[in-house]
Amino acid sequence: MEIVISEFMDETAVDSLRESHSVTYDSGLVDRPNELAGHLERADALIVRNRTQVTAELLDHATQLKVVGRLGVGLDNIDVAECQRRNIAVIPATGANARAVAEYVIGTAMLLLRGAYLCSAQVAAGDWPRTALSNGREIGGKTLGLIGFGGIGRLTAQLGQSMGMTVLAHDPAISTDAPIWRESGVQCVELDALLAKADVASLHVPLVDSTRNLIDASRLALMKPDSILINTARGGIVDEHAVAAALSAGRLGGAALDVFLDEPLPAASAFTGVPNLVLTPHIAGVTAESNVRVSQMIAQRVAQALKDAATNADDTRIA
Ligand code: NAD
């Protein structure tokens, strides 16, 4: 069968697919949509990360497509309803990059709470800002508020607890008496209470209508002025202008943002010159280790889905 891979994937996993399938692997295809559409005319499977927009228009070119593998977990770049309508399976790499994201959250929280690790150029130049940098804070004993308590939220809770943090979470899909709260030692709270109490608030929700602009200026105003906001979920969930304004005015202690409304972030963005800010290019879930885990999982699941599709087709022919 024919598999098209339009974004980067671990080579060993690609080779494992080549053993039984014809594979077109070109990590630049995502930026050449006409060429991608041409390849899809013969494709049985398409494998993407988060940049390839799997729209109804693209699917019109892919009349043989049986499966879309997603090298990650958010599905906002895939028209899942349209795939369902066309009987195309959508397979995310659930859990395979959770560790990478959870470590990013704890790592950036420590960096921003301590506030002392960005002075290398000053120290190398002979400055000695010891007094100015002696007020950094420890992560132990702080309160971590998780907005979204799914796979990544739960792993982040465990890492936070192992650092001595108290963990709160808000997730409307989990009832207040669900066993997970007792089992995890995480306190279930409403969103506004979480924002008011957290020293570090971190987002782990999908981008859907109910989460768009979830953290706007009025919600940011509920946060303590020395608290930290971390968004590894998706751009569009946090109001970027409101975060930049709150940091500049000292109404927010720090922020780490890995995802943005427009990616790449435009050069003259709201964040130019804003203090206590860590910006990264959508890499929270991407490490050397997670790339291998995600790619292996998707290679195996896509191969299995194609096998199942072939078996079903045989059964239909026999019947
Ligand atoms: P998940 O589906 O396991 O958990 C998401 C949770 O959010 C669910 O429990 C859901 O009930 C909850 N939720 C939905 N709406 C909510 C709301 N309004 N308020 C609070 N909770 C709400 O997903 P996950 O694996 O934990 O991943 C979460 C998100 O992280 C993904 O959707 C993706 O967008 C993002 N992500 C980003 C990266 C990255 O590299 N930056 C990597 C992986 C995942």
What is this entry, summarized?
By secondary structure, the chain is an alpha/beta fold. The chain is built from twelve helices and twelve strands. Helix 1 (about 10-20) links the parallel strand 1 and strand 2.
Can you give keywords for this protein?
Rossmann fold; 12 helices; 2 domains; alpha/beta; 15% strand; binds nicotinamide-adenine-dinucleotide; 319 residues
Give the SSE map.
Elements lengths: L1 E4 L5 H8 L3 E4 L7 H8 L4 E4 L7 H4 L7 E4 L9 H6 L3 E4 L5 H17 L5 H5 L18 E5 L3 H12 L3 E5 L8 H6 L2 E2 L2 H7 L2 E4 L13 H4 L7 E4 L8 H9 L5 E4 L19 E3 L8 H31 L1
Parallel strand pairs: 1-2, 1-3, 3-4, 4-5, 6-7, 6-9, 7-8, 9-10, 10-11, 11-12
Bound molecules: nicotinamide-adenine-dinucleotide.
The site of nicotinamide-adenine-dinucleotide has 31 residues, from helix 7.
Structure report:
It is a single chain. By secondary structure, the chain is of the alpha/beta class. The chain has helices at residues 11-18, 33-40, 56-59, 80-85, 98-114, 120-124, 151-162, 179-184, 191-197, 217-220, 240-248, 288-318, and strands at 2-5, 22-25, 45-48, 67-70, 89-92, 143-147, 166-170, 187-188, 200-203, 228-231, 254-257, 277-279. Helices cover 37% and strands 15% of the residues. It is built from twelve helices and twelve strands. The strands form two sheets. The protein has a seven-stranded parallel sheet, sandwiched between helices. It folds into two domains: 2-96 and 288-318, Rossmann fold; 98-279, Rossmann fold. The model has no long low-confidence stretch (mean pLDDT 97). Residues 72-74, 97, 101, 147-153, 170-173, 204-207, 210-211, 232-234, 258-259, 282, 284-286 line the site of nicotinamide-adenine-dinucleotide.
